[in-house]
């Protein structure tokens, strides 16, 4: 009643302005949310389960390769052949697209780094090279999280171009060339250690042998041995003709019996979806 008396005392014009102000406040804060979060503990309690959606192609598959090597077209064809979702390689503006921005935000909101400047001045004293690599790791991690979310929510497998698990080979190459300092490598490993541990590795990793020659040490000595312990690894000689059907056949013949994915059930999938 007190609020009604105050509105009447303000008069018609002031009351209308107050009403308009109240309506404007209802709009809330703009968040650019790309999708609503629907899954929760209540869904699990009411009987929603993940495994009934899965089939033989409910996998996360990654393809690594050099820039402009055709891995994007290969990944798209592979996804179409297996009925999977193809996620193009993440770039510095990946988060802008996922949050529905009409155009990329300035560099101040995208890692404070520049890919063009890295090519022009890789040894920049302000640390642009390391900020770029750390930001790319973050974008690849976000994309990998989106891929797992899609797999668990729909049962449809996903084909990715690179992943956060192989991102460190680029940092190693930067360090070997003198683009980043040892402190940067230490910081990167700390960030990776507390973030990547939350995710299961891909079901399968595909690496062309020609790519191993360009970043040979990191891939052969670190990445492939690590991944071989927990996932299937396929390596191809790209000097020979490789068509999508050959890759599809190799994937179909792979049993995917080992690795941490084989240890999961509906309870652990529920916990993953709640992250």
Automatic annotation (TrEMBL):
It holds the Pfam family dNK. InterPro entries: Deoxyribonucleoside_kinase, DNK_dom, NDUFA10, P-loop_NTPase. One of its GO terms (cellular component) is mitochondrial matrix. Residues 61-200 form the Deoxynucleoside kinase domain. Its cofactor is FAD. Accessory subunit of the mitochondrial membrane respiratory chain NADH dehydrogenase (Complex I), that is believed not to be involved in catalysis. Complex I functions in the transfer of electrons from NADH to the respiratory chain. The immediate electron acceptor for the enzyme is believed to be ubiquinone. Complex I is composed of 45 different subunits. This a component of the hydrophobic protein fraction. This is NADH dehydrogenase [ubiquinone] 1 alpha subcomplex subunit 10, mitochondrial.
């Amino acid at each position: 009643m007190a609020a009604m008396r105050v509105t009447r005392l303000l008069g018609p014009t002031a009351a209308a302005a107050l009403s308009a102000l109240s309506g404007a406040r209802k709009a809330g804060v703009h968040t650019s949310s790309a999708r609503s979060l629907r899954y929760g503990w209540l869904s699990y309690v009411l009987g929603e389960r993940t495994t009934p959606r899965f089939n033989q192609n409910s996998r996360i598959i990654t393809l690594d390769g050099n820039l402009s090597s055709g891995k994007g077209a290969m990944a798209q064809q592979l996804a179409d052949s297996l009925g999977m979702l193809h996620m193009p390689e993440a770039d510095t503006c990946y988060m802008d697209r996922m949050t529905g921005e009409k155009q990329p935000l300035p560099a101040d909101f995208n890692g404070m780094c520049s890919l063009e400047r890295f090519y022009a001045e890789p040894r920049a004293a302000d640390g642009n090279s390391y900020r770029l690599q750390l930001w790319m790791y973050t974008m690849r991690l976000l994309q990998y999280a989106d891929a797992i979310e899609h797999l668990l929510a729909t049962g449809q497998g996903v084909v990715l171009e690179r992943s956060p698990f192989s991102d460190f080979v680029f940092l190693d190459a930067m360090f070997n060339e003198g683009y980043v300092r040892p402190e940067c490598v230490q910081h990167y490993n700390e960030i990776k250690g507390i973030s990547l541990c939350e995710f299961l590795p891909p079901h399968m990793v595909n690496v062309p042998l020609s790519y191993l020659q360009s970043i040979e040490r990191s891939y052969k000595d670190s990445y492939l041995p690590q991944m071989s312990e927990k996932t299937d690894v396929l390596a191809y000689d790209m000097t020979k003709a490789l068509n999508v059907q050959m890759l599809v056949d190799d994937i179909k013949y792979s049993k995917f019996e080992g690795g941490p994915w084989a240890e999961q059930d509906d309870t652990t999938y529920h916990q993953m979806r709640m992250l």
